[in-house]
Specification:
homodimer; 8-stranded parallel beta barrel; globular; monooxygenase (chains A, B)
Chain lengths: ~450, ~450
């Protein structure tokens, strides 16, 4: 095969995923606070030869809906309970061999020295399987947990993120690949000519270096991003090697794909060095009608309030003040028109209410659902992959680990039969799986980091 | 047995321990960047029924000696290469069942929301085996890595640490034990009456809360400390449940024991609720002469420069400016007299040079060495335990994992034979192992946290 399809699994270290209803499914894991659940998911995806398992993260109970913690906690919405994913992933590094482990870290609330050290450690512990989903955090509740009354402005956040990555790259480059000598007899531990301070003094950060962690197997984690604003897409086009995307329609996904790839070209990058992963929720069955029933069963479990809480966070607008049964037409909320249009398209009905929108949103934050037999789901994947919308897909679970079992047992063999997906890992690092060359830490990345 | 002996193992996620020579030993592990080494140590100590494995941490290459990174890197001194221990410990939580996992986190460079979340996560992932070694970081190189030109003053650091712990306790208490309902049918995830914001606004920190992590098995990590100054000892007496201590002489250890226990009583605590762990390096052999040869072999590997680098950090004084062969008598360095006296006592010789001190320091930062057959080492442990110097001991390795194998295979059975040490774990949490009752998060701890 000339182009290789890539597959990733999406999780939050929590009871829910994009689907706010995941935890209510009768077959879903109930102990999402212990390590066993994550082990089972990671091993299942590794059995399916997935590129990586991805952990989103959220640093606060969402309070944008009515400025209240009671409602999100009662409904178990996204972020109402979330473990620190870096520890979960480090655990998985000890019990898996091949699958990549990508975690989210915000550039807004931590110092780059700490974050660079976490990822260099994870890359060592996993033998080169670390990925970093760089987020710039935009949620006021997070800011309040970390002692800031308000979050930074949008552009300031990206400027800070830009410098954050520059500092992290310098720290990862502070040890050369062959700096570690470890000669027990002579007592020479490292070659001092191959380790250096970084002496960074910028607008946001100061650090001397070197990192305490020697050069890691991949040099640095694979950089993952999910920018959707113009500034965010530029940031992604400049830095990202994998992009996680939410777009409910094939047209939207194709437009995003073309847009980001051409932005990357404008930054002097090879567009093949950025793999774009749209997300979907799969419902797979032995027959199409089984799959459709599974989908309907899941979607019915979604709690409208739970969805409206997340919608309030995503739009930075408090939806608690409206009548749930008011027709959507009567709501004039700046910035939501496109989103409401999408909801209308996803839904059968034309006369949606706010309750309907909440329910749709709780079913998976407007992620598309790929439904059918193994062949039908594989058809949708193949069409998108060959039709210019994706280099791979990231699967979000309607219930876990069940959704991943179904996909690995039904759909992966079909994709392999079609020659679209690997039947065995051919490399050992996440970069290998993604078909990325050696990581750049010096001129290329540095140039790309200069704001155009 | 009425009183139970406790045992812990000391590591840095690195090539050295207190012994700067550990990495040069022919049998020592050479891959201290992968997970296998830590797994082997943890499983060995778990086989020996140890209470916990302890990870120190250092956030910078030590540059106090000549303001230079070259010398520490070449000699492989302490902190020249160190992984993030929170990820290492999270990994071990996945591959061990009983042994406690204690890690170091500074209160100086992070926000308490992050640290509280890390420990609540580790406590969940390990099923209640988390411990937190609270350090207030006093090293300028660390400050420079985290963007601060100079570290905080001594008293300021302890004031910050005090508030840091208060905030962490509030966050750990933000979810009641039984707040998680998880009723899939009704869709009630948590009882909103059992989760609350903390709304902390203090001198150093602000946070709203609640924590994103539900109440963890131990309620919070076991608090570990190593205060040695008067303010540090008060801090330890107020907060700590296990204390890690370095003192080379039995008299010094007895004095420390009495001092800290009586300080604890002054803060209204039961002195049995603080377990004091002096540290030592064991050298065990089939015969005493084998053990003595092992000791001599190890001690000879110690590099004087490597030791002087750490001595420079510990005394905040640059020893690179002196002649290595100058007699110690000629050096007048404020604050080192007691330390030099200790070195003279540990050494056979009276006419020590700076090189000798460096070598002694590199052998284990003046930790006592317990040397001999299983019976002889057990005698020393028993004498200290029954003689008022210790509730348990923390072992530091002359080489790893070998030192731990020797101790577990030779000495542990002898301690068990004497009825001093458990033959099986009787509980599942670190608090259980330490014989501590349920953790307090509310009034008792809060009262104890008020500066007297």
């Amino acid at each position: 095969m000339s182009r290789e399809l890539h597959l990733a699994g999406f999780l939050i270290a929590s009871h829910v995923t994009h689907s706010h209803a995941a935890w209510r499914h009768p077959a879903s894991e109930t102990d999402y606070l212990g390590p066993g659940y994550y082990q089972r998911v990671a091993r299942t995806l590794e059995r399916g030869k997935f590129d990586f398992l991805f952990f989103a993260d959220l640093l606060a109970t969402p309070v944008r809906y009515g400025n209240d913690i009671r409602v999100p906690l009662q409904s178990g919405t996204q972020a109402s309970a979330t473990l620190d994913p870096s520890l979960v992933a480090a655990g998985l590094a000890n019990v898996t061999d091949r699958i990549g482990l990508a975690i989210t870290k915000s550039t807004t609330y931590f110092h780059p020295y700490e974050v660079a050290r976490i990822f260099a450690t994870l890359d060592h512990l996993s033998g080169g399987r670390a990925g970093w989903n760089v987020v710039t955090s935009l949620n006021q509740a997070e800011a309040q947990n970390f002692g800031a009354q308000d979050h930074l402005g949008h552009d300031e956040r990206y400027e800070r993120a830009q410098e954050f990555l520059e500092v992290a790259y310098k720290l990862w480059g502070s040890w050369d690949t062959d700096a570690l000598v470890r000669d027990k007899v002579s007592g020479v531990f490292a070659d001092p000519d191959k380790v250096r301070t970084v002496d960074h003094e910028g607008t946001w950060f100061k650090t001397r270096g070197p990192l305490t962690v020697p050069h890691s197997p991949q040099s640095r984690p694979v950089i993952i991003q999910a920018g959707s604003s113009p500034v965010g897409k530029d940031f992604a086009a400049r830095w990202a090697e994998a992009i996680f995307e939410i777009d409910p329609t094939p047209e939207g996904r194709r437009a995003y794909y073309d847009d980001v790839k051409s932005r990357a070209v404008n930054f002097g990058r090879n567009p093949d060095d950025i793999k774009i992963f749209p997300s979907f929720v799969p419902f797979v069955g032995e027959t199409e009608s089984i799959a459709r029933e599974k989908q309907a069963f899941h979607n019915e479990l979604a709690d409208p309030i739970s969805g409206l809480i997340t919608l309030s966070v995503h739009t930075d607008h408090d939806f608690s003040r409206y009548d749930l049964d008011a027709p959507l037409e009567d709501l004039v909320v700046p910035g939501t028109q496109g989103l409401f249009d999408v909801a209308r398209r996803l839904s059968a009905s034309e006369n949606l209410t706010l309750r309907d929108i909440g329910k749709l949103y709780a079913q998976g934050v407007l992620l598309p659902q790929f439904v059918g037999t193994a062949e039908q789901v594989a058809d949708q994947i193949e069409a998108g992959f060959t039709g210019g919308e994706a280099d791979g897909y990231i699967l979000s679970a309607a219930q876990a680990p069940g959704t991943f079992h179904d996909f690995v047992d039904f759909v992966v063999p079909e994709l392999q039969r079609r020659g679209l997906f690997r039947t065995e890992y051919t490399g050992s690092t996440l970069r290998d799986h993604l078909g990325l060359g050696p990581a750049s830490l010096t001129p290329a990345a540095r140039r790309a980091s200069v704001v155009a």
